[in-house]
Structure formats: structure tokens, C-alpha cells
Amino acid sequence: MKNCCTLEHEGLTLSKNMIALIGNPNSGKSLLFNRLTGLNQKVANFPGVTVQAKKGKIARLEKEIMDLPGIYSLFSETLDAKVTRDFVRENPECLYLNVVDITRLRRSLFLTLQLLQITKNIILVLNFSDKKKQQTNLEPISRKLGIPVVRISAFTGQGIDKLIGTIEGFTPPSNSNQEIPKLDLEDISEDERIRFIDKTYETIESILPYDDEKIDLDQSKYEKLDRFMLHPLTGLILFVFVMFFSFKLTFTVGGFVSGLLGEGIAQLQELVLNKMPEGILVSFLADGIIAGIGFVLVFIPQLAILFLLIGIMEQSGYLTRVVFIMEKFLAKVGITGKSIAPMLLGFGCNVPAILSTRTVDDPTERKVVALTIPFMSCSARFPVLIILASVISEKYAELIVTMAYFLGIIVAIVTIWLLRTFVYREQNTATIMELPDLQKPPIWNILKTVYNQLLDFITGVGKGMGIGIILVWMMTVFGPTGYIGRQAFENQEYFEKSFTFMVGTLFEPMFKPMGWDERIVVALIFGFVAKELVVGILGMMYGSSNLINGIQMFYSPISLLSLLVFVLLYVPCLGTVFAMKREFGKKVALASVLYSLLIAYLVSIFIFYAGILL
Amino acid sequence: MQNSSLSEAKKGIPYIIENMDVPLHELVKLKEIGFDKGRKIFVIQAIRNGPVCAKGKDGSFILSASIAKKIKVVEATQ
């Protein structure tokens, strides 16, 4: 027997007293979810942020709440829409908060009427009421639909108490006064769907008469700014400027604080080395924990600024403008505008970006996009890029990092072209994508998201990365002859007795053309688990107190530039590979690993030899 | 009154959708989001041979060139 409220395919089991949020993309469901639960569900002002159902608890009501992926229609065929559709059909007993953008009310009722076919347990929640100048009379809508209607603003918190009261007092409603068009949701032809859509919109007309006089171009107070962002020339210039400015700010402000933290870490290491008696414990603390893990944590201020800027771009609606600017070009290489959003999300973390490809209509295009996401440089790679760029040239470090990001984008585009030309040739979709209004980003929500992302980073460092760092430390201070001591980090003769050297020697011939030694080879191997490990291991191997000078002593700038490119492009981290396997199967995951390894190798070797010749 | 495709429509002038000669699965998507014959529409921005950003009663949408070219519009009488 099936449970009352289940979402088996997402691995979530829900209690009977469940509430679910449902609505169009950009209707503010995730924002409301965060308001009601106090959790930090990621929010963005572009479609496709919630691609998996998320669960939380409304403390005031002692009820669980589910945030379902946004859809325009229960007929939609994307995977994220399927999650929502299956949930609604399997759980008609749940209470649905149908969240609609009050400025898009007519269109949003299309989904409401479909929902009413399945369940009457609905509260219509009109969100963003702070944006609507004229007040809509809710009583006739509520009466005609036969469900309660509440006006709120998840952005300002207005109306939330009333919504809570309505949930508490909710009783299954009487029949609506409206005849709801009915249609079997399975196995219908597109002609039938069109007839159904026409009929549904006729019903909507009777609830909310169409009045085109009310459409004007001055609804948004950011209209001029919007035109500037959407202009093909100024929009492109602005995008390049925004990217560069983001890195500049991250380097200058974040770099300053990181520098202070770095000095603190180095002093702590010195203190441990000076005050504690020499031995295995002091090496573990000074070389493993402080130099390895501590050195990665130094980058938290820079990551905080990067996450903050990405949050502002996402939640203001700017990233959707970038989609518009880039659509023409990407359409030429073979993907639609909907695929750009997952790619841009990849700059934060590749794993949710892979999941967000579920919003892409065409399954073939989904695979193409997923295979390119690992080339979008995620935040875990950021510390590695900063360190290597600073060693290559302190003066031009931010420019080098910006160029690295653009190189990742170029490789992604070339990959799309190659896949569309030789592997996945069929294309059958075009872009139809909502452009949400520009808005002032909700700072409370962005700060919560940044805090959450940093917490993820720190716990990630503490868990998986901690194990990796300790393993490499053990491999370095121990060798086939037993304990070598911390001299292995400082003296080549001792280092050559270590397991790290042995492992590095196995793969070192592959990287000899670029001039990288066993230490870097081991850092790259462990970087497959998590990219942050590369920096941690470099800090451990070359000394966190003076890493830049330490690396400079061993490698030429061109050798380091080729290393930077390799780190940027080589195999996605283990988390991304697992996400890829889960979404597309083993073959695609393996293809991604092998392809990115090959590309990274070829591009970095090209850069190395081109640099030498020049 | 001039009849043209949405790709050729001028920015900021109201148009009425006259016909949408697009493949059925795309017609379904357009109608679901409220784009239909007889509806008023504005072009906010268009890129030559590229996407069009069009605003209707039910919000703004990015439409790729392949779709925008097939949507026939006529200038609305104000």
C-alpha cells in the first residue's frame, strides 16, 4: 500500500500533515519556504533553482513543508516538472500552497486550475504584493475558485501571519463556482493539449477578464537599467566588466583579509613547531592540520565575497539578462537559452548545476550541457587559481584568474560544438524562457545563503578534505622504511623516501613535459576527490608561511600557468562525477572524466610549449 | 497597419499577435504561458538574427530567433 504523502523517487518520506509549495518558476516559492521555515533554501531570480523537492518544518505550526520545483503546467515534460506532477498525483491529501506572482496572476491561474482537477486542498498565495500598485479584489477570485486566497510578500514578510492563520484554520472547501476544464494528464496528443489550454484560458477569462490596456512598459522601476543590461553591446561589455570587477573585489578586499589570516596560520604553525617537542604529533599538527587544512580556510573571506556577488547577480535577475545576451551565440553552437542557467550555476558548484539541467526540455541537450559544466570553474577551484595566479604574477593575478574563467567558458563552448557536430546531432528545441523583472536583491536571504555556502565549504574541508589531507601527510612522513619525520616536507633527500614520492613517481612521467614534480602530481591526484585539496596539499608541501616563494623556487611561471590551466579543466570532483552518474548513467560520467582529463592535458601542454617558444 | 514577424517588430510599440506558425510542442508552451493570438505584446529588446525579449500581459519572455521569426504580429491601434 502506498503511503499518504510520499516522494519515493526523491527518497523523501513525508508525514500526513504535510504542506507543499507549488507554483510557477520565479513565483517566490523558495523565498516563502525560507520565510516559513527559517532555512536557507537557495533562491534565485531565474527559472530552475528548485529542481529537487526540498523539505523543512514550520515551527509555529509543527508541520512539515515541501518546496516543489516550479512549473508552468502539469503537462510539462522536463524532469523537474515530473517531480512536481508525480508528487501532486500521488498526494492529493496534502495541503498545497499555490504560490503565484501577483503581477502574473492570469497566467498563474493556468496551473491553479490544473491543480483543482486533482485536489481542493489549496490555498492560493498571491506573492510579491509589495510590487503591485493596484489592489486586486480577492473575494471574487476566492469565491469562483472555491479556495482561500491570501496576499503576502515573502520579500518583506507582509501577510505571513495571515497565511499561517489561514493554514491553521483550513478546512476542505466547498465546491467552486467555476467549471474546471478536465483532462487526463496521461497520453494526450498535442492537439488535445492545445484545446485544453484554450478552454482553461477561457475559464481564466471568466475569473479574471483579460485587460490589455493595463500592459505597459513602465511597470518596472528598473526599466532603463534593464534596457542597458539587455542591449547586445552594452550588455556584453557589462558582463565582462561585472566578471572582472567581481574578481578584483575578491582579490583586493578578500585578499587583504585572507593575507592577515594566512599570517595568523603561519604564526600558529611556528608556535606549534617552537613550543612542542619534536615528533610525530607536532608534525601532524603543524604540517597536516595547520598547514594543510588551515591553509584552505584562509580563503574563506575571498569565497564569502564571491558567494555574495554571485548571490546578488542571481537574486536580482541579472543572470537571466546574461542568458539573453548569450543566447544567439549559444544557439549557433547548438544549445538553447535554458541551458545557460545551469552552466552559470556551475560557477558556484558543479553538483547543483548538474541537477539543474533537469530544467532543460531536450534529453540530448541535457547531456551536452552536463558534459560542459565541469569546465565552469567552481568555487572550490578558486583558491587554487588565486594561489597559482599570485605566484605567476602578483600584479596581474586578478587578470589571470578572469582569463582562466573565460578559458573555461571557451572550452565549454568548443565542447558543445564538438558534441553537437559529432555525437548528439539532433536538435529539436528552441528557447522560451521567462525574464523575471529586475529587483532589489533580498539582502537577508543572500546573507543567509552565503552563510550556508561557507558552512558547507568548512564542513566539506573538515570531513572529506580532512581525511585527504591526513592521508597525504601520512604518506609523506612515512615511507617503506617507516617514519621519516617532518624533514620529508623540507628536504628532497628525505622526501624521496616517502610513499608520496613513490605514488608521484608512478604518474610523474606523464607530467614531465610540463615540469611538474611528484608533489604536484600527488596534489592533482587528490584534487579529484575535492579540488580544495590541491591548495591544502600545496600548502603542506611548500610551507604555508611562504607558499608563493616556495613554489616560485621550484617552477617557472609558464610551468605554473600550464598547471593553473590543468587544474581549471581536469577531471570534475568526485561529487560531480556521482551527480553525473546518478542523472545520466556510468557511461556519461566516465566520458566526462576521460574527456576533461584529455582536454586539460592537451591545453596545458600547448600552453607550456607555446610559452617556451614565445 | 503593418504585418511583420516578432523579430522585425520595433521596440516599445504595442503589437497584437496575429498568428503563431511554430511546431506544435512549442505552440503548447507559448499558449501555456499566455502567448496567443489576439494578445498584446511589446518588444523590449531584440538582437539581430538572435533572440527577442517580448513582454505580454503575463510577463516577459526570451524567445529564440527560430520562434520569434514565426510569430506574426500587427501594430496595435492605441
Give the SSE layout.
The complex is a heterodimer of chains A (614) and B (78).
Chain A: E1 6-7, E2 12-13, E3 19-23, H1 29-37, E4 54-58, E5 63-67, H2 79-90, E6 95-101, H3 105-118, E7 122-127, H4 138-145, E8 149-151, H5 160-168, H6 190-207, H7 223-230, H8 232-275, H9 280-297, H10 300-316, H11 318-333, H12 340-345, H13 350-355, H14 363-372, H15 382-392, H16 397-423, E9 432-435, H17 443-477, E10 478-479, E11 482-483, H18 487-490, H19 492-495, H20 499-511, H21 518-527, H22 532-542, H23 547-554, H24 557-569, H25 574-584, H26 586-613
Parallel strand pairs in A: 3-5, 3-6, 6-7, 7-8
Antiparallel strand pairs in A: 1-2, 4-5, 10-11
Helix pairs in contact in A: 3-6, 8-9, 8-10, 8-11, 8-16, 9-17, 9-22, 10-17, 14-16, 15-16, 15-23, 15-24, 16-24, 17-22, 20-21, 21-22, 24-26, 25-26
Chain B: E1 3-5, E2 15-20, H1 24-32, E3 40-46, E4 52-56, E5 59-63, H2 65-68, E6 71-75
Antiparallel strand pairs in B: 1-6, 2-3, 2-6, 3-4, 4-5
Descriptive notes:
The complex is a heterodimer of chains A (614) and B (78). Chain A has a six-stranded mixed β-sheet, sandwiched between helices. In chain A, strands 1-2 form a two-stranded antiparallel sheet. In chain A, helix 3 (105-118) links the parallel strand 6 (95-101) and strand 7 (122-127). With 614 residues, chain A is an alpha/beta fold. Chain A is built from 26 helices and eleven strands. Chain A has helices at 29-37, 79-90, 105-118, 138-145, 160-168, 190-207, 223-230, 232-275, 280-297, 300-316, 318-333, 340-345, 350-355, 363-372, 382-392, 397-423, 443-477, 487-490, 492-495, 499-511, 518-527, 532-542, 547-554, 557-569, 574-584, 586-613, and strands at residues 6-7, 12-13, 19-23, 54-58, 63-67, 95-101, 122-127, 149-151, 432-435, 478-479, 482-483. Chain B is an alpha+beta fold and 78 residues long. Chain B is 17% helix and 40% strand. Chain B has two helices and six strands, in the order E-E-H-E-E-E-H-E. Chain B is globular. At the A-B interface, helix 3, helix 6, helix 7, helix 11 and strand 9 of A face helix 1, strand 3, strand 4, strand 5 and helix 2 of B.
